[in-house]
Every structure is written in C-alpha cells, then in structure tokens.
Amino acid sequence: MGRVMGSLCSALAVFSVDDMKLLMVLALLGLPVSAPVEDGRIEWHQCRLNAADDEGAALDKAGAECGELQEPLDYRRPDGPKITLALSRLRASGDRIGAMVLNDGGPGGPGLSMPLRLRPAMKAAGTRYDLIGLDPRFVGRSTPIDCKLPYAAWPWAGGADRASFDRASAQVADVARRCGANAGQYLRYVNTRNTARDIDQVRVALGERKISYLGYSYGTYLGSVYLQLFPGRTDRVVLDGPIDPVPYGPRLLRTVGPANEAALRAWAGWAAARDATYHLGVTTTQVLASVDRVLRVAGRSGLQVGRYRLDDGVVPLLLFGPLADDRDAARATYAGFVRTLFDATYGPVEPGEELGGFLDSVLTPASSQLASAQIAILCGDRAVPRDPQVYWRDIQAHRRTEPHFASLTRMISPCASWPVRPQEPPTRIGNPERALIVAADGDPRAIYPYAVALRKDLPSARMITVRNARKHGIFGEYGNDCADTKVIAYLLSGQLPADQTC
C-alpha cells in the first residue's frame, strides 16, 4: 500500500489543484485513474541498437533520442510484473508548444520512427512539438509478442466453396493455437484500453500536464479511447482515417466490402484507359473479367508465382491490400500485381520486386511478430461468435453483391478460437473532448460513415472531409493541400476549424 501511495504522490506532482480534484472525482466514480509506475522515469539514449539497426541509425541521424519506460503488465496490479515500453523523442527546435504522441494504426503498427515522417509533413508546426514515437505494448521493441506463425497472411479468405472455407478455418484456428502456446502469458493484457493507459503513463513520465496526439486508422480508435478514459489530458488531437468505435473489433472488415468493390471498379476503369500498358482489357467490364479469371483459376488449381502456390485463400488478400490508395503510382503498382497474377493463370511466372516482397512478407514468418500483435489486440478488445457456420452463412449471403471480397472481409478470424476472453468490455465513446477528424469520403478501409459516427460521438470535435478520394490516411500522405493546411493551422493555433470539405 505504501508503495502505491508513493507512486500516486509522484503522479500528483505534475497536476494542478483542479487536476487533483478531477482525479478524486474519477476515483469516486470508479473511472480509470492513471497513477505512474514506481520510478516512472525515461532514461534517454541513442537509438541504434546494433550495426543492423537501420531504424535506430535513421533516428540518431535526425537527432532523435530513444528511451524505455517500465509499465505494469496488468494495471490492476501496479506493483506486479512490468513490461518495457520503447519510445523515441525528436525534440522541438522552435517555440515549443508541447509533446505529441504519434500512432500509425494497425492495430499493432510500430511507431518508433514516426517522428521522422511526421516532422516534415507538419511543416511549420513540425519543429514546435516534441514528437514522441511509440511502439505500443507488445509491438516492435516494447516487450514484443510472437506467435511463431509460419506465415503472416491475415485475414485469410474463405475461398470459393465449403472445402476452401473449412481449410481456411483450420488455418486461422491454428493461428489462435500458436498464439496461446507462444504468447499465452501476455494475451490477457493485450487490449486498447491498456495501451491508452500506457500513453497516460508516458504523459506523466514526460512531465506533461497535457499531451497532443496524432493517430491514423486504428490510431483514431486508440485516441478516442484515450479521450474517453482520460478526459482533460489532451491539448491538440488529430484523428485521420477514423474508425467508428461501435463496430470496431475483429469483424470490422465485414462492413467495408462494398467500398472495396467500388474501389476495385474505379481502379478497373483507370486500368482500362491504360490498356496499352497493362493489357487487362479496354473497358471496366473487361478488366474486372480479368480479375475474375484470377480468382477462378486460383480456386480451381492455384497460381504458381515464383516459389509460392497461391490459392483462393490468399489471392483475395493480394487484391484487397493495395486498394486503399487511388493515386496513380499506387494504381500502377496494383495493375502490375494483377497483370502478374493474370499471367499466372496460364502457367508459372516470376513476380516483380514489389509483388515478390509483398508475398515474402505475408507468406513467410518474416512478419510473424507484426501479425501476432495485430491479431492479439483485436481479439483482446472484443469477443466474436465462435461457430464457423455464422461466418459461412454471412459469406454466402453476400457473394453476389461483394463477389471479390466477401470471402475475405466476412471470414472467420483467429478470435473465434482465441484461448482467452476479453478482460474488459468495449469502450463506449461519448464525451465533449476536442479533436480534429480528417476523413476521405471514399476511404475503402475506414468508410465515411465511420467518420460521421465518430463525429457524433465527439460533439466538440470538428471534421475535414476530402471529397472524391479513395485513400486511407490523408494528412501528410495524400498531397491534399487544403486538408494539410487546415491540420497544420490547428496544430499551430489550437483553434479548431469549422466542419468543412476539401
């Protein structure tokens, strides 16, 4: 008890009188209070770990510093076992506004090197913040978990028939088994609420009364949970590619099938206008017929691409992944993927560098750690039906309207066989905290109704909508000067703009 009280006293050192009143009210209401861990200090040092650490070398070259923070594995037992949270800091060089924590989504995406990308994107605001890159718990350098997966392809599609569905179901169940066997001691503590608590511990360790936050994709859900659990702890918040907190969870993708079918049709029209380059068809219908042939042959006999045999479990993922960007360069890369897959319907082919790298990342253990964290976070946040028949019926009901992606977006996940149940209920978002939401109206991953729903959950927030854009992630990525300028102005002034379109 004495140790806990001592930690609480050290936490109060960074709070004002009003903050302390708030803490007491939160405690009385049974709401989460973030008392820092014992000796919650960050020892800063150079980032490069060894000669092969390119990420660390890049951070060092930019003048960043790295550090670790010991945090509770289980926040119900603050004096119990600890995990290590790894973070980087690129200090402000101008008139300092404060510290900003960054999250790149995933879930389970590493964030240590995010300051290197975001500082130039933030332009005049970039030098005004200490930019904090964070590997969330169990990701990257932060006590990473690894299920020792033989491949990292997830989600795996259910295929064209019941035999393919049953085979894929066995594969995803094996993922859950491997996670239980290789990371079981951590699975109860992998969830977004604990990551939000970690962020508040970072705030305290940095000595900040309030922090700013910029999150993409899943990072918008994490940011929303932080706003809900720790009101009054943020200054400026940007949520880009927003997720609706209500459907968020392992089955979130089942709502995005129609948007990805639309994105595929839009890309097919783009490719048809460039048939002299890609030879996939001179009309949208012809290009889609080429895609259909790829799926049909993959399900019947498989496609031999380099050393990989691609079936109807993995090909939908290859067609789905690159669709979240409608810029010409991304569409050209996607067209190259489809052209190679189409050629493989007539016999073995060798992949180009980009497709080969993508296949290596999802069909070998190379990305096992990244996939393990992503799956564990989703399964730790929300329970799902465990009966495979639920998913089979859902796929069958939507094959006609979502012919290319229903077997992927509606497929059973490892969470249906997960060895532990979520330890806390999903977080219901509804508060007056201020934030700037940035959304593309044609985003194939975080569909626009998600943004509208989050805007209602955060009535004091404001929203920038980028029209006629099929891109997941806008600020500093899409090249929309209107949106970028408004975000930067908000980061500089702290004044939210009115809801508007770009």
Automatic annotation (TrEMBL):
Superkingdom: Bacteria
Organism of this sequence: Kribbella karoonensis
Keywords of the record: Hydrolase, Signal
Domain Peptidase S33 tripeptidyl aminopeptidase-like C-terminal: 412-502
GO molecular function, one term: hydrolase activity
Family the UniProt entry places it in: Belongs to the peptidase S33 family.
Keyword Nucleus: no
Pfam families the UniProt entry points to: Abhydrolase_1, Abhydrolase_4
Keyword Hydrolase: yes
Phylogenetic lineage: Bacteria, Bacillati, Actinomycetota, Actinomycetes, Propionibacteriales
Residues in AB hydrolase-1 domain copies: 99-292
Name under which the protein is recorded: Alpha/beta hydrolase
